Amino acid sequence: MLMISVLLHISANLIAHTPDNSFLGFVSEEAARADVREEELEPETYKKDRMAVVYGKQDYMWQGKSEYVEVISEELETHATVYQPPGHSSNLPGSITNHGLLSQEHFLRLLRRAKVFVGLGFPYEGPAPIEAIALGCVYLQPKFDPPHSSDNNDFYKGKPTTRQISSQHPYAEEFIGRPHVWTVDMANRTDVKPFTPREFTCEGMLERVRGYITHQDFCSKSVPTWPPESALRMHLGPLGQSCVSVCRRSSLVCEPALFHHLNSPSAFTRLGLGCASMGQEDYHLFPAYNPWGRHCGLQQEPLLFSCAGADPSHRRLCPCRAHPPGQVALCPDCI
Ligand SMILES: *[C@@H]1O[C@H](CO)[C@@H](O)[C@H](O)[C@H]1NC(C)=O
């Protein structure tokens, strides 16, 4: 009994659950181990087949998951290691090859041949996904939405924890992630349909060409007048961020033709910035604000206006604008 209870305490801490507990962990199969490397070089002993292995050694773990497993078995030869009592027939779908319980050695050999290790939602946070990933499998696991917790889940009910479990293996989801770990909505069967962004269709191309022919002026030396100032959404970037990413974070695009509207003392005032000094320079990140010394920098050479580029001591003034769906080059009201 003592032995069992000690094991339970250790196993509860196999994975770094929360910072409340220290994380002792365990040692997994190592991807870079020398003998594994050698085997990798031998194509016969380390060759991936079009094969998936399902994580779940007991029948009940598969309950309600047959549709999900069937979708996978349509694409990949699907293997299981579910315990089968002698004399009982398996409840698994007919398309699954069941090996019964395997020794660790044989289980690892199976994983070594597989491309995908499929989690069904239980057990939580076990060591097997870590081993599968170390052997070159992609770990496909269900996302829990809403997260499992002691409020909504029998396994966690009564356990002294307020954790919210976001997937079968939150460590794999958060600390390993893609390409090794794919956390998916198991019930969502939306097909990936063919898709062409509007700007790559004939109509989208013609719309864009028309916009350019009508509005762009290559002969005038004055500042651009298109897109119009009404399209401007002025943003003040944080230190070290380019205008490309500042605008993208607001689902907008950076429009270099609007920079000249920001290149004046009044732009700094409109953004609530008080300038202790103001200067004009040839510097591709300008107009920008330097909080140390509250220096406001204006661009001297309009040819240097650029959406790209950032440095850690400047907050850039960014000319963002919206765009219609599937037509990044144009703005909604300037076609
Ligand atoms: C299913 O997935 C698609 C594609 O990711 C998404 O657009 C859709 O909202 C999802 N449906 C549900 C019910 O979550």
What does the model show?
It contains nine helices and 13 strands. It is an alpha/beta fold. It folds into two domains: 48-184, Rossmann fold (3-Layer(aba) Sandwich), CATH 3.40.50; 198-334, no CATH class. It is elongated. The termini are far apart. A hairpin with a 4-residue loop joins strand 11 and strand 12 (295-299). The protein has helices spanning 2-11, 34-41, 66-75, 104-113, 128-134, 170-176, 202-215, 243-248, 265-270; strands at residues 51-55, 77-80, 96-98, 116-119, 138-148, 165-167, 181-184, 233-236, 253-254, 277-281, 288-290, 295-299, 315-321. The structure holds 2-acetamido-2-deoxy-beta-D-glucopyranose. 2-acetamido-2-deoxy-beta-D-glucopyranose binds at residues 185, 188, 190. Residues 185, 188, 190 line the site of 2-acetamido-2-deoxy-beta-D-glucopyranose. It comes from Pleuronectes platessa. Pathway: Protein modification; protein glycosylation. Belongs to the glycosyltransferase 18 family. Keywords: Glycoprotein, Glycosyltransferase, Golgi apparatus, Membrane, Signal, Signal-anchor, Transferase, Transmembrane, Transmembrane helix.
| Cα gyration radius (Å) | 29 Å
Biggest β-sheet strands, sense, barrel: 7 strands, mixed
Shape: elongated
Secondary-structure-based class equals alpha/beta
How far apart, in Å, are the first and last alpha carbons? 76 Å
Looking at CATH, which topology of the largest domain would you report? Answer: Rossmann fold
The whole-number mean of residue pLDDT values reads 89
Binned, the helix content reads 10-25%
Task: Quickly give the CATH architecture of the largest domain.
Answer: 3-Layer(aba) Sandwich
InterPro entries: GT18_cat, MGAT5_Glycosyltransferase
GO biological process, one term: protein N-linked glycosylation
Pfam families: Glyco_transf_18 (PF15024)
Signal peptide: 1-16
